[in-house]
Write a structure and sequence with these properties.
This protein is an all-alpha fold. It has a three-stranded antiparallel beta sheet, covered by helices on one side. Helix 4 packs parallel to helix 6, helix 6 crosses helix 8 and helix 10 packs across helix 12. The chain is flat, with a radius of gyration of 24 Å.
C-alpha cells in the first residue's frame, strides 16, 4: 500500500510521511533503510527519526497539561543526552523501545499522583514506596525521573536504582564447558548461532559487540584464524575459526561486511533475535558471559583481557576482583620479561 502510494505520488517521498502512513514499525524501518541505501532518501538515522515521531505524537496525547509540560521538559533536557548515546549504540532500536517504555512508566506515575489528589510537591515518599511494584523496569524508569525532579526542585521523592545482581554467579564452570563442547561438536548448527555461542562461552563477548563484527576483523589467512575485537587479535580454536571463515565468505553478499546481517538493508542483526536463537539451544548468554569473564580474569591479568576483548581496564579489573584475582606484581613481571 505504501509503495503504491509512493509510486503514484499520493504519498510524499519523505520519512515523516512514510512513518505516519505505515502501520508496522518493522516495515517502516525496512522501507526507510532501503530508500536511504538506494539513495532515494537522504542519509538519516532511521531509529532516531522513528522515535522522534513517536515522542511528538505521544506527548500531544497526554491529557493533563501539567503532566504533558513536565514530561516534555524531562524529554528535552534529560533524555536528549541518552538519545544521543542510543544513536551510536550497536542496537539503537531496542534502546529506543526501552526509552518509550520508561516514559510510559513516568506518565503512569504522574497519573497516580493526580489520582491521589496530590501534586509533585506534596506527594509523600511513603505513598511512592507503596506504589512501586515488583517490576524492575518500573524502578529503572522512575529512578532517573525522580532524580531529575529533585534536581529541579519539583519533588522530594526518591527511587533508588535497583542493585544489579550479576547474572551468572551460580552458572557453574563445568556447565559452561559442557555447553562449549556442545557448540563445538554440533556440526549441523547454524553457523551464526554456533559462532556467536562460542564467542560468548569462550571469551565472554557481549551480543551487542558480536552483532557488529565485520569481515575486516577476521584474518582468514592466519593459522590459527584470528579475530580482533580489541587491541590484540584473538587466536580462535579450529572449529570456531572455521565457522568464522564461513561467515566471512557469506558476508561477500553484503557491502558493509557484517558477519551477522540484519533484515533491514545495510544494517547488522540486533542482539534480541540472536539471544533467542542461543536460548533455544539452552545457552543463557548473560550467565555464560559472566562466568567466562570471571574465569578469564582469574587466569590472565586484567590488562591482557582488556587488550584482547576491547573492554576497559577498569572493567577488566572489576571482573578480576570478582574472581578473587591478585595481579599487583604484574608490572614487575612484565618489565622482567620485556
Amino acid at each position: 500500500m505504501v509503495l503504491r502510494e509512493l509510486a503514484d505520488g499520493t504519498l510524499p517521498l519523505t520519512a515523516e510521511a512514510i512513518i505516519t502512513r505505515a502501520r508496522s514499525g518493522q516495515s517502516v524501518a525496512f522501507l526507510l533503510s532501503l530508500l536511504v541505501r538506494s539513495g532515494v532518501l537522504p542519509e538519516l538515522d532511521v531509529e532516531s527519526t522513528r522515535f522522534d515521531h513517536w515522542l511528538n505524537g505521544w506527548l500531544d496525547d497526554i491529557e493533563d497539561p501539567e503532566d504533558r509540560l513536565i514530561l516534555r521538559r524531562y524529554c528535552t533536557w534529560e533524555l536528549l543526552r541518552s538519545a544521543r548515546t542510543l544513536r551510536s549504540a550497536s542496537s539503537p532500536a531496542s534502546g529506543f523501545l526501552r526509552q518509550r517504555a520508561a516514559l510510559k512508566y513516568c506518565a503512569a506515575f504522574l497519573r497516580e499522583i493526580r489520582s491521589q489528589q496530590e501534586t509533585l510537591a506534596t506527594f509523600p515518599q511513603r505513598r511512592l514506596d507503596a506504589y512501586l511494584t515488583d517490576s524492575p523496569s518500573q524502578r529503572d524508569a522512575l529512578a532517573p525521573f525522580t532524580r531529575w525532579l529533585r534536581k529541579h526542585r519539583l519533588s522530594t521523592v526518591r527511587v533508588e536504582f535497583r542493585s544489579h545482581r550479576l547474572e551468572g554467579r551460580d552458572y557453574a564452570s563445568d556447565h559452561r564447558w559442557q555447553m562449549a563442547r556442545r557448540f563445538l561438536s554440533a556440526a549441523d548448527m547454524d553457523p551464526k548461532t554456533r559462532a556467536a555461542g562460542l564467542l560468548v562461552l569462550l571469551y565472554g563477548i557481549q551480543l551487542t559487540r558480536i552483532v557488529t563484527i565485520t569481515r575486516a576483523q577476521v584474518d582468514t589467512n592466519s593459522r590459527p584464524v584470528t579475530l580482533t575485537v580489541g587491541a590484540e587479535p584473538i587466536e580462535l580454536p579450529e572449529i570456531l575459526g572455521n565457522a568464522m571463515v564461513n561467515l566471512v565468505a557469506a558476508s561477500a553478499r553484503h557491502p558493509e561486511g557484517w558477519l551477522f546481517p540484519g533484515r533491514n538493508p545495510g544494517k547488522h542483526l540486533t542482539p534480541g533475535p540472536l539471544s533467542r536463537r542461543l536460548r533455544a539451544e539452552g545457552l543463557l548468554t548473560g550467565s555464560a558471559r559472566t562466568t567466562a569473564l570471571i574465569e578469564l580474569t582469574r587466569q590472565m591479568h586484567p590488562r591482557i583481557v582488556s587488550d584482547l576483548l576491547g573492554i576497559t581496564t577498569a572493567s577488566a579489573a572489576a571482573w578480576s576482583r570478582l574472581a578473587g584475582g591478585e595481579w599487583s606484581d604484574y608490572p614487575a613481571l612484565r618489565s622482567t620479561h620485556a
